[in-house]
Amino acid sequence: NEKSDSYNILNISFKYIYKNLEISIWSKNFTNTKYPIRAYTFVLDPTYTIKTYKSFGEPRTIGITLNFKI
Prior knowledge:
This protein is mainly beta. It is 0% helix and 54% strand.
């Protein structure tokens, strides 16, 4: 059994509201941290070498959200 290292993810959001319009600029994983979300250890090749295969979390995502209230 292996335990993964701890990590921090920074999500940010800036919101501006003017009358009926709301504009949000946001980012998830702002620092673009590479972090494993799951891993498997097993033998996949004929050399019988034990390897760990990891899946990683989402990279940095940036977006804009517009909301208009009628």
